[in-house]
Task: structure prediction
Amino acid sequence: MMIAALSVKQPWASLIAGGRKTIETRKWYTSYRGPLVICSSKSPADQGPAGVTMCVVTLGGCRRMKSEDEDLACCRVYDGAWSWLVYVTCHLKPVPVRGQLGIFNLDMPEHAFLTPDDKHVVQELLARLPWQ
Result:
């Protein structure tokens, strides 16, 4: 199954997967909405799992970052920051993945899902996307 993915450095990838960080920040806007695999970047490798799939989130919105976002983003407002509003849909097994810049297409291995129900939920979300 092909699915959109995003590489996130540690410890932020683990904070997203744990539900603590529900706002990911970037210096660019995205119009993408829907399921998104969070992959941990290969570096730094000393702050959590590196170079693997972590979870599937649903990206529900994107807006300019404001001071009220700082707690959920686990960072301070910075110049040009956009808040990506995410919530965890399901957790994944840590399958090695080669990350890329920006949102990229990932051919999700079947064995990455923890349960068949997780796979079904993600397939249902993908089926609802208008461009599928």
The chain has a mean pLDDT of 92. The helical segments are 12-17, 70-73, 116-127. DSSP finds three helices and six strands in the chain. The CA atoms of residues 18 and 127 lie 26 Å apart.
